[in-house]
Each structure stands twice: as structure tokens, then as C-alpha cells.
Design goal:
13 helices; 274 residues; two-stranded antiparallel sheet; homodimer; alpha/beta; 47% helix
Chain lengths: 274, 274
């Protein structure tokens, strides 16, 4: 089963387009976890156990682990998901990009070492730089298209032959690059108009949408702009709004409530639109 | 002392524009190293000891370590350089790029955890995504501009307001983004004409040039196109052509000879041009 099929099954099973970002930061961990031997792993396990019936994917962001040498805890987190919730796909958020044999090493890192189901990648180096990822046909390759930050427009918004660069990128990604049908795109929740333009170009390709919650993206506008004709095609990520819903030792209960609220808010708007 | 000053001192001291890429691959290691407890570290130490008077920088590519969980050997390699050859700067080739607090984590990874003197970054996410790196004023931030692979042109070569995207990027990097004077750019050796256009735009900003040797870039053409008016401003990287000059246990001697030959070839053309 390829990544997109696995993702859509999880979306159906849990009636959810919600993805939870697992981005632990030592200073923000609840006291209960901070004093554990593997603080990030304890935190993540509790969050996962509290939300696994409410999400369609988990998205650990690798820099949070790499900054402090916690690769083993990232590995153990992904292993924990695969052992306990094998239906929930894991998107490794790494935004990798390099050429030739080096890109092959990054693909090994994501898909073999960490056993991620999908990885985020940066397209600036072009189609041949993505090929070492794309050739893992059963894995998902989530290409940055229009990011949620204001500076995203510096390059992505430049006009190329009458349209913005990120739209040109969307055409490449939905067209010649997508031979294995395993591409997804990242479009920030902060730009619903641009999300709508990407959706027009890419058909049913799923869009990973960060930026709701802490970054200010509006759920109703995202759904209105981004759902595909089937009422699917979105993976809406929230990290801080869920995992730090409480800074106390009730963090898991608070995270479950925040995930439930956001999943249901998404579903209310989905059903209005369908 | 900031990164560029440190780099230029090393270039003067060793009369060299050569950077050696430390990209170990288990299958290509000489038998002598393959059976060591820390194979990559043994390989790198021998290479560094054999070439430290011939180079202006070392550039370990992080995917080679991350693919197989060898972060500790990367750390130890950088520590070995800093303890034994403190004048030689280390460029961590990681091509990182993300936004906000995540970019801060990647900067911590490169500059605090690994203690690199510089890191390569990907500009697709725009100026604000680079700021967490750039604010380390004493560190170098090496931004991808025009990469050496054929597919590099897919995005980088698109025409924006009458010029290619990579030239627009060069203007941003040499201008508004370079408040701390710590930016360098990557331009592949395979595109000497494009290297010349970047040089026209960026003044004396140093250019990191991969792609000589294994990827086919021509040394004379690179120097002709890329030297700044002072006869400096280039960091010419070779990885495989040097570190795998021999596949036998004479690898260090062979690497020294290959580094000497390439340094001297670069210098012959430099002096012809000056």
C-alpha cells in the first residue's frame, strides 16, 4: 500500500484530517517528562497515546531532535507509533534537499534509518534532486510549495512567465515529477487564496497545511480553499497548539482535548462544504 | 574573527583555495578503516592529517553520517579538526532550511551541537528563514544559488523579470540579506558562465564551488569565471576525487597527492590570471 492510500485510510478510520506535529522543546516539557531519562520520548508517547484515534498522521520535525542529539528518541518515537498504531502514517519533517548520491543518503536517513512513511523535501535543487526520494514508490514525498512564513514570498512569489514560482512548482510536481503518484505538497494555512490556486492545478494531490493555530491560519478558509472534489486531500498540521495545550502534568489530557476540538472544528466546516 | 576572515587566513596560510569534502561511505572505505570501531572517524582523521597543510576548509556532508546514525563520528571529526588544526574552518554541508523556531533549532544543530564554522542553507523559504542562521554574525552562512546538477535549472534557471532566478537570489543575498557580512553562495563548477554572472553581482562575496573532478567541472574555467578582483573569493570543493583517490590502505598518501595536485593546478591558473 502506498503512502497516500495509507493516509486516506487513516483519515477515514479516524474521521480526521488532523496531523499532530511532534516538536518537543526541553524548556517547554511538563515537569513529569523533563526529569525522565528520555524526556522527548516520554512526552511523545503520552501525546500519541492520547491522540492516536483523532489524527490521520504524526509529523515529527527532525531539527528538534538533531539540535540536542536526541536521534535515538526520534527513532524510538517512530518505532512506538509503528508498534502500537501501525495504521497512522509518520511524516518526517526534514525539508531535505541535495543532489545525486547525497540525496540518496538523505532518502536512506528518512526511509530506512527512521522508517518514516513520508518525508518533506525542498525543491530548489530541481527534479533530479528529488528522484532518489521519489523512487521509493510506496513512500510519500512532500514537496515545499508555498510556505506559511511572510518571507516565503521572497522566492516563491516571484513571477515566472505570468505566474508565481510556487504555481510553476505545483505544475512540475503534479506533472512530470509525479511518475510514481507519491507526491504531496506543502502549502501554508496563512495563504488560503494561494492554497486555492494550488488546488486548481494539482487535482487530488494531498496538501500538507501547516500554520493553523500558533501561526494564525484560519480553519474555515483553509478547508474552503484546499479540499479536493472528494472532500479530502488535506492534512492539516498543528504542533504547538496541541502538544503545549497545557504546560503542566495534565499535558496529555489537554492535548487530547485540543486535538478533539480541532478535528471536530475541521469536520464541521468539511460537512458544511460537502 | 568572523568566518570569512578565518577562511581567508587559511587560504593565505596554506596558499590554497581547495576545500576537501569529508563524505565517507562504508562500502568505499579502505579495509584498514572498515574494521575499526569508528570507521568514518578513522578515515577522516587520516585524511585530515594528510591534507591539513593543503586546504582552506573541510566540508563534511551530514547526510553521509545521518544515513547510518554516525552523528558521534561527525562530532568527533569536527572536534579533531578544531583540536589539531584550529586555523582550518569547517563548513557543515547540511542544506538546511525551515522557518521560525525550527530554523533556530537547525542553527543550534550546526553551530552549537557540531560547532561548525559555517553551514550550507537552502533559500527557498526566503529571507526570514535564513535570519536565525545569519544572526550568528561570526559564523558563515553558505546559501545555495546555482547548484551543479542538470536539474538545478528547473527552478533556479526560470526567468524572473528578465533574469534567471539564481541571479535574483544572488542580488538578495549580496544585498538586503547580508547585514552581518557573513553570507557566501554555492555555485556549481559545471556552470562557469553562470558563475561569472554571479561574480558580477556579488562583489567579493566568497563562492563555494562544488563539482570539479567527479562531476566534471573544469578548474581553469572556474577560476577564470569566479575569482574576485583580489584573486580570491573561491572555495573549490572536491570530495570523491580526493578521499577515494585510492581504494586501498594507501588512501591517505593518495589523498595527499590528489589534494596537492588539485591545489597546485588551481594555483597555476590563479597565477596566470593575476
Amino acid at each position: 500500500m502506498n503512502f497516500i492510500a495509507k493516509l486516506e485510510l487513516a483519515q477515514q478510520k479516524n474521521n480526521s484530517l488532523l496531523c499532530v506535529g511532534l516538536d518537543p522543546v526541553m524548556e517547554r516539557l511538563p515537569p513529569l517528562c523533563r526529569h525522565e531519562k528520555e524526556p522527548f520520548l516520554s512526552f511523545n508517547r503520552a501525546l500519541i497515546a492520547a491522540t492516536a484515534d483523532l489524527v490521520c498522521a504524526y509529523k515529527p520535525q527532525i531539527a528538534h531532535y538533531a539540535a540536542c542529539g536526541a536521534e535515538a528518541e526520534l527513532l524510538a518515537t517512530i518505532r512506538y507509533i509503528k508498534e502500537n498504531y501501525p495504521d497512522i502514517p509518520v511524516i518526517l519533517d526534514a525539508k531535505r534537499g541535495d543532489i545525486g548520491s547525497t540525496a540518496e543518503k538523505y532518502a536512506l536517513e528518512a526511509f530506512e534509518r527512521y522508517q518514516a512513511d513520508a518525508v518533506t523535501v525542498n525543491p530548489y535543487l530541481g527534479g533530479d534532486s528529488l528522484e532518489p526520494f521519489l523512487r521509493y514508490a510506496e513512500k510519500g514525498v512532500v514537496i515545499l510549495c508555498r510556505t506559511s512564513n511572510p518571507g516565503g514570498a521572497d522566492l516563491q512569489g516571484l513571477m515566472v512567465e505570468g505566474e508565481a514560482l510556487y504555481l510553476k512548482l505545483a505544475r512540475l510536481a503534479a506533472g512530470v515529477w509525479n511518475k510514481n503518484g507519491n507526491i504531496l505538497l506543502v502549502v501554508g494555512a496563512t495563504w488560503p487564496e494561494e492554497l486555492a490556486r494550488v488546488r486548481e492545478i494539482v487535482g487530488n494531490i494531498p496538501l500538507l497545511v501547516p500554520g493553523v493555530g500558533a501561526q494564525g491560519g484560519d480553519v474555515a478558509a483553509v478547508l474552503d480553499a484546499g479540499l479536493d472534489p472528494r472532500g479530502l486531500g488535506l492534512v492539516i498540521n498543528s504542533s504547538r497548539g496541541i502538544i503545549y495545550a497545557s504546560s503542566g502534568d495534565d499535558f496529555a489530557v489537554a492535548a487530547r482535548q485540543a486535538a478533539l476540538d480541532l478535528r471536530d472544528e475541521i469536520n464541521r466546516h468539511r460537512h458544511k462544504l460537502s
